[in-house]
Amino acid sequence: MYKEGLSEITVILPAFNQELEIGTVVLIAKRYAERIIVVNNCSSDQCSEVAEAAGAEVIQGFSGTNKNLSLRKGVEAAKGADILVTMDMDVCRDPRLIPEMIKPIREGNFDLTVGTCIGRHKRNHESVHLIKNKKTEERPVGFLAISKACLEELDLSDVYLNSIRSIMSICERKKINAYHIDLQEEHEKNLFKAYKIGVVVPAYNEELLIQETIEGIPDYIDKIYVINDSSSDRTGEIIDRMTDPRLVPIHHKVNKGVGAAIINGYKYALADEMDMVAVMAGDNQMDPSQLPRLLFPIIEGKADYTKGNRLLSKEMRKGMSTWRAFGNGLLTLITKVGSGYWHITDPQNGYTVISREALEDIDLDSVYTYYGYCNDLLIKLNALGLQTIDVAMPARYGREKSTIKYSAYIIKVAPMIFRGFLWRLKMKYMILDFHPLVLFYILSMVLVPVGFLFGLWIFLQKIVLHGSVSANYPLLDVFISLMGMQLLLFAMFFDMQVNKTTSLNYAKPN
């Protein structure tokens, strides 16, 4: 075991385009460390300047975002520190956890400590990786604290610093006394206590699962708005019997629909000035451990609305029937066109978080009250130019089974999405701004049906009625149809370009 006098603490922070957060992180870290080194990985923003202004030493890292190489470069620059602390800001941005990380080393009990926190998400358009978080060892590393003597003994070139398995394996081989600290609970507490967060729980005949759902909501939530939508079972009675002080029971005398229930919950949350409001259905199908991943993008100012996505891989869809996945896929296609959020998938996923600012901008009374409220909400968010992010997460099914019949559902919701689509075109491209794509859409909606009906008439005249038709008519029909399709494709292309930055995919669920 390495024991020596410990005084100087150095913190290494790899950074890439994090000018919004780096200043605050450096200032807080300076409370606990004598030296802060920021390894700037060729950021295109003002990350270096902000870090220097906050009092950090800045060294240039590598092109791209290879955190392992950046950490090693930071370690080389930090030689001589009695305790070296590395902090991965993509996993944890709370330097207030540093004292807990260095305590085992200061007390002389351990040579190295590894801290795992809430896994944050990285944007990834090319691939999706599902991290099976069944073992603590597989969780992302947020902090690493190493004593000076241990650092001299440990060859970091052999260690994958972002993997707790790699770190612990090397320490075991070299007989280094290492200690793992699970920081998730404290990280959540520290991170979210600065915000007022509410959860809306719509419930209709959920007597079996409503209590389990409410009891599973994390402690950092300030208010739980449970809407009993005129249930005919004991749901209302169970809600009233619960003693959680955060609980706000709301009872509808008549069934208004899940959309109306959620909107009512939103209104209560606005009245209580919640900063963010999540939706977690009363059937306990929404995993509370995934909630931080929906909150992070809004806290970081990257999104106004976040939603779950269960369709990005077969593993994530586990438990979802083939018919349900097909229906969800069809609704995804319809909603992409209708809402303008072309990167968004799984629009029926009701596990969402919305910012107070977004709620204040939306006309809540105009939101669809049936199950299609989530599609309608996306349309309204897009029309107002608000940022939406998809957060990949696995499906969670238990005792509760969905009662949605997708054939009837699509027939009912599709016309609403089409009306919303027309409203979005008018609002976004004619009233709030102007773009010629609206003309392309309008012309295509005229020419495509005309081409189809004209072709059908030609077919009936020649094949069914055996009449004569001008030889020019088929050519004219082809011209009309092709022109209509071309205008439609142009309109969709321009719509995608306009909305390119309003929706993102976030992968790597825990």
Automatic annotation (TrEMBL):
Keywords per UniProt: Membrane, Transferase, Transmembrane, Transmembrane helix
Residues passing through the membrane, by range: 406-425, 437-460, 472-494
Entry-linked InterPro entries: Glyco_trans_2-like, Glycosyltransferase_2, Nucleotide-diphossugar_trans
Protein name: Glycosyltransferase
Coiled coil ranges: none
Sequence ranges assigned to domain Glycosyltransferase 2-like in this UniProt record: 10-132, 199-362
PANTHER family: RFBJ PROTEIN, UNDECAPRENYL-PHOSPHATE 4-DEOXY-4-FORMAMIDO-L-ARABINOSE TRANSFERASE-RELATED
GO molecular function: transferase activity
